[in-house]
């Protein structure tokens, strides 16, 4: 039995999407990270990082959304799984790329537009973070010139991991007109029925103190 911890309006939606693509039954515990759900003794025993998502597969407990999805692909296969070692390497590459090149500026752009409480928003930081996304977005736009999906002709865990993170794009007010292929690819990915649990975030969070900004804040 698989158990997934984490509310849909969190990075747990990435894993919910994956489990649904694979048609895997799971128990969902929507641990609410905004109300201390990830800081209880009980939860910290499951994930000492105090973060969601975390997945328990018959006692094998794994954290980090991208790693969870790559694990699910490798273990349970299905149409979304990489079929060769090279495809697997590419899926890992794009997942790391999304985390290192895209996630922080995208999250901070969304934060300064919507996620931070209004007095904590900073218009200069919003502009800067949007600018930082030019470089990775150009890379993805060029990659999609020769193929419909990241690994070629069909949707895989590589697309899922990157597109699930980029579901923050609409919350960042980013203009994708310079990236038409990226925009089309993202739209097609997010329209998949298995992605439907993704609900626009409706909450705000306070800006963390500057010395904590390197850490993830939502
Ligand atoms: N790199 C981790 C980040 C997980 C993360 O930061 N999750 C947030 C919710 S989206 C969380 O649990 N925050 C609660 C906290 O930090 O206390 C992943 O991708 O799984």
Structural write-up:
The protein has 218 residues and is an alpha+beta fold. The chain has two domains: 2-76, Glutaredoxin; 85-195, Glutathione S-transferase Yfyf (Class Pi), Chain A, domain 2 (Up-down Bundle). It is 47% helix and 7% strand. It is built from nine helices and four strands; from the N terminus they run βαβαββααααααα. The chain has helices spanning 12-21, 41-46, 65-76, 85-115, 123-132, 134-143, 157-165, 169-172, 180-190, and strands at 2-5, 26-29, 54-57, 60-63. A four-stranded mixed beta sheet has the order 2-1-3-4, covered by helices on one side. α1 (12-21) runs antiparallel to α7 (157-165) and α7 (157-165) crosses α9 (180-190). The longest helix has 31 residues, at 85-115. The chain is globular. The model has no long low-confidence stretch (mean pLDDT 94). Bound molecules: glutathione.
Summary, kept brief:
With 218 residues, the protein is an alpha+beta fold. It has nine helices and four strands, in the order βαβαββααααααα. Glutathione binds at residues 10-11, 33, 38, 50-53, 64-65, 216, 218.
How many β-strands, per DSSP?
4
Q: Can you write the helix and strand succession as a string?
A: EHEHEEHHHHHHH
User: Taking strands numbered 1, 2, ... along the chain, how are they ordered across the largest sheet?
Assistant: 2-1-3-4
- End-to-end span in angstroms? 28 Å
Strand proportion, as a percent range, falls in: 5-15%
Q: Architecture of the largest domain, CATH level 2?
A: Up-down Bundle
Question: Sheet bearing the most strands, described?
Answer: 4 strands, mixed
Question: What's the CATH class of the largest domain, please?
Answer: Mainly Alpha
Number of helices: 9
Report the mean per-residue pLDDT as an integer: 94
**Overall form:** globular
Write down the CATH topology of the largest domain.
Glutathione S-transferase Yfyf (Class Pi), Chain A, domain 2
Structural class: alpha+beta
Rg over CA atoms, rounded to whole Å, is 17 Å
Q: Stretches where pLDDT falls below 50 for ≥5 residues?
A: none
How many domains comprise the coordinates? 2
Helix coverage percent: 40-55%
